[in-house]
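yo

u said u wanted the structure for the complex thing, so here. seqs first:
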Amino acid sequence: MSDASIKQNRGLTAWLLADFPQNAFQARCQRAYIGWLSFKTNPIAMLGLIIVAFLCFVALFAPVIASGDGTTQDLANRLAAPSAEHWFGTDELGRDVFDRIVWGSRVTLYIIFLVSIIVMPIGLIIGTASGLFGGIIDKVLMRITDIFLAFPRLILALAFVAVLGPGLENAVLAIALTTWSPYARLARAETLTLRSSEYIMAAEIMGASKARVLFAHIMPMCLSSTIVRLTLDMAGIILTAAGLGFLGLGAQPPLAEWGAMIATGRDFLLDQWWVPTIPGIAILVVSLGFNLLGDGLRDVLDPRSSGGH
Amino acid sequence: MTDSSTVRSAAVDFKPYVNVARKIGGGVLMLLLTFIGLTAITFIIGRIMPNDPVVAIVGDRASKEVYEAMYLQLGLDKPIWQQYLIFLNNILHGDFGNSVMTTRPVIEDIKRFFPATLELATIATIVGIIIGIPAGVLAAVRQGKLIDHIVRVIGLLGHSIPVFWLGMVALLIFYAKLDWVAGPGRIDFFYDGIVDPITGVILIDSAIEGHWDVFWNAVSHIILPASMLAIYSLAYIARMTRSFMLDQLNQEYVLTARVKGLNEGAVIWHHAFRNVLVQLITIIGLTYASLLEGSVLTETVFAWPGIGQYITNSLFNADMNAVIGGTLVVGLSFVFINMLSDILYRIVDPRAK
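structre next:
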């Protein structure tokens, strides 16, 4: 950012780029804005953002976009080829594939949401506690983390689903149970560098309790790297969920889950290619979007690695 | 290090060996801990399964006496930690119980199915190394050029494609439409049983015994599933090679070498790549381990009689011994490969502490 161009701006832009922020809120907005400016120049990352935003848009407005609820059967019209009426054709029960893709975006978002709200708190609490308290707590927690880190994810998720029974929520729980460990490692590493910083010392001198330091001062600082990592992992999580769905262990019919749609469409690949092909493309596009977005976010939030990746 | 002075005074300097031994010792300790963790979790999974392990063996028409005899024989009356020790003891003796589905001991089944998975994962890893490393180096050297973009896009696609879907599409195109390769399965029925299983890996067995017709049939079968897995390993290896290589090329020693007037090939391969190679050991280990477990979906699509398919089939038949045995074997090889690459890394890289 050159200073000359900043000075010419007025109003909101000037406020966002002022040399001396007046309060914490302005400073925070400035950070986000400057990050956004650098994010904007990265076309690949923008493509990722557009894909993910589009997914959210479709999921949000599914009732408007889809012509039906995606579960209504029309056996007279089964396996119809793509046409003006059925953009992506119909499946073996005469359900509109386009509608099912649209409703399936909700399932995908639901998986993303559930995994995030399970994995982030577990990883953050274990990691920050481990880093802050140190000693025996650190040793025990990190050994447990290492053990989970060394586990094969898909196989373990399979075994968990075997115990919990097939179903979308159980599949998500199984994925989350096998995914949290890298986040604990990450949060611990960040905590170790933060622990000796002056603002933490200041908080402690002012009498902040350990819990307050942990939740109010350290955890928020670990959040950005956790979110970046989660975005990068999201493609893998979506693929695992789809894989479990494909094996019949994830979402159960008639729920329109993309992986399960591929599994049921498998038999029609030869003559009615659209039934299994379209959900596959949907999965590909969405996980590609998260990969692109994650790459871009990492470049913005972690400038150290921007050259390397 | 209090004993370093005494070691140094000896005629032979033992210190490096002591360090290596300590590194290996640390690795082995971690391996043991992970082993205990893995067995504990599979044990718990087996214990909280909704179906009754006694009924699974004696059937639900057994008399009360038979049921109770089996209940005692399985040690289900003992405290839970004793049951875990029994479980552990059985595993260490290679006893995973019998499979309900195949009625054979689970360990026998695993011996039959595991080589097929190993065959697939090994070939995919080798392909990934052969193509991925040069591609990654080339992309780093020509950063921002066309080849770099191509490698990056392939790297991202390899991480975004649902492999089970790609496998189906590949089967449709290359088997059903073009008929270039053989279809699902490991070998045609016609060739089944010709080759005696020596290693269990058909490609090796048929080559040893000189059955080249069987060998080529097996090659024709393995090309597609191995390619599916190779796309993943290739993408990951190329992506990591590129990023490691970029890190190295920005270092000052590379600049020094260039200023010295070394040609570009020597700078890249003798200086920068040497340092990358060490880091790649871990990446290759990780790839191989994740292919071993990640082949579950590929095996399902290609009807490949490997351990992944064995586990999923057993799962649908509520055959718990088989599921636990399979999970444990895959988990252990996963852990073992990771530990091996970690130890190898520490030995090869003199800077690793």
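Chain A touches chain B through 48 residues (CB under 8 Å). Chain A has a mean pLDDT of 82.
cya
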